[in-house]
Amino acid sequence: MTDHPDIPAAKIGVLLINLGTPDAPEVRAVRRYLAEFLSDPRVIEIHPLAWKPILHGIVLRRRPKWSAEAYNQIWTNEGSPLRAIAHRQAVALRQRLPRVSVHYAMRYGNPGIAAAVDNMAREGCTRILAAPLYPQYCAATTATANDAVFAALAAMRWQPALRTLPPYYDDPLYIEALATNLRLQLANLDFQPERLLLSFHGMPVRTLKLGDPYHCHCQKTARLLAEALGREVDVAFQSKFGRAKWLEPATEATLGAYPKDGVKRVAIAAPGFSADCIETLEELGIRGRKTFLNSSGEQFALLDCLNDSAEGMDMITKLISRELAGWLYEE
Questions:
Q1: Threshold 0.70, pTM exceeds
Q2: Contact, 17 vs 24, CB < 8 A?
Q3: Rounded Cα gap, residues 226 and 162, in angstroms
Q4: How many helices (H) and strands (E) does the chain have?
């Protein structure tokens, strides 16, 4: 047919997915972001009829101002640290896998998953690997990211083939990358930490009882990392939200108790985060540091996430290449 629509050459696509960020460190932008994030039933497992009045009547009236102030403390010339790092990760992966169309998206905020999937399909991606960069599986992170990808495909007439990146909490590639990266950072400190604290994002205890493997994944990551580093580590959970009982021990309480137990020098890492963000830079690096020092601690170091480091990108490249087996092959 002479009027047949143009069809681009078939491509393989990879979509790197992270949690999200507001567009600006301003109350209005933060409120819009939080409204999307806290309206996700995977995140807040309370019946909407009970949760909506609380969300709109209390949370979205109070929390955006506080969160905007927190974002202001970490915002950079490139904008949101998380978005800037995600962009650099995508650029680095394109350089390492030149035959693959690499995009990145946020589950909440911009660039969104639906728009990214649509753009990938328009440029000819007939096969897409969705890669939520959450090492430990959790319904509130991995599952909701996949949900959004599935929803985007459900709206399409011509759907690409789809694969999803499994959790990699105990993958030797991940453990080796973490161990190598943390060794380098610890060696560059101007003091010897008496404790290495691994802080994972917290979850309500009920998620464990409902069958979410997240807590077990975090504990196994910590055990394997300790073995790889050849040193003991402590484990804690951060970012509690709401009144429900959350996984313990809490990071803040742990940092506050260290000096009372004679621990004056601490390094803290957040291996569950693939990129530094408000939870690492502000919650740990600013508030966590303040809690420790105000409790008579003496030296505190926040270690970087893998971000777009050589170790981190080697790991991502190998994980992605493995999941593309059968799609991406040697020519």
A1: yes
A2: no
A3: 35
A4: 13, 8
